[in-house]
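#lab-general

N.A. 3:47 PM
ok so I finally got the sequence cleaned up, no stray characters, all 289 residues accounted for. can someone with queue access submit it? mine expired

B.Y. 3:52 PM
send it over

N.A. 3:53 PM
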Amino acid sequence: MKVSVYPKEVLEQMRAEGRLPNDTALICFDDADQMIGADAPAHADAMARVIMQAYADGKDIAVSCDRSVSAGCAAAVMEFFAHDGITIFADARYAPDRAVYHMLLAALARQKRYFDNKYHYAADVSVMRAHFKRAQLSPALLEGYQPWDSHAVVDLKLTVEQQLSARGQLFQTAETIINALRSTGRPVYASFVPSDLHYLYFGWHPDGVATQFRYGCERIPVYIYFNKYYCNTVDHRPPLHRRSLAAGSAIRLGTRPPFTTLSFFGALSWDSERRMIDAAPLIMTNMDR
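B.Y. 4:20 PM
back already:
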């Protein structure tokens, strides 16, 4: 993706003369008060959704830039996609609003997390409540939680991982996970991105996916148990064979090829007899084939 920034009058002239390529999305910011005040976060999210849709469609982006508020927006777009927001701050023609810059930058990161999460798994409310109690997490985090709400699931996963990590209760590498399981003899909470996934069968239909952890010279099997998942219908169209699916309905695991990647958060326990790890997922996002 290519991101270009133009003074507003130049970009408007290019558009009027038809000099913008068809594969370029025109993003215009005005130095208005929409990005200031109580409604500013909502406006930032709406703006970020438009920008992320252009990104998802594979379009280049042409950004208009005036003096202050719009300059802050343009700098955020440049920084997020090209890591070059400093060019706007260093340009004497502009005085980017830093609050607007940080607000839109955060909104872009949030919307990208939503767009990247095409399919996800989330445990039922009762299961989540039991784990929140065990982990001493506030039940208020689950207010309004529904496993099919892709945006809420993404936000909850990030919040819980941050809280557990700050308390030293989240393990994220194969070595730290296995050391914690063997030293404590109790289940632990973990977050990781597995690879080399394949279906796990105990009957006719898959009951999850399996992977391995490398631990020294050992290969430790990891079984992740789940049999359904959800489609993010807010940011993506469901696959053709699932477009008649009712909103909020789960998809049975095994109707398509196995996922090749996912981002796991859940509880792991050590099976000493089989020398393997049983994984009970709470939230898995960014499931992709």
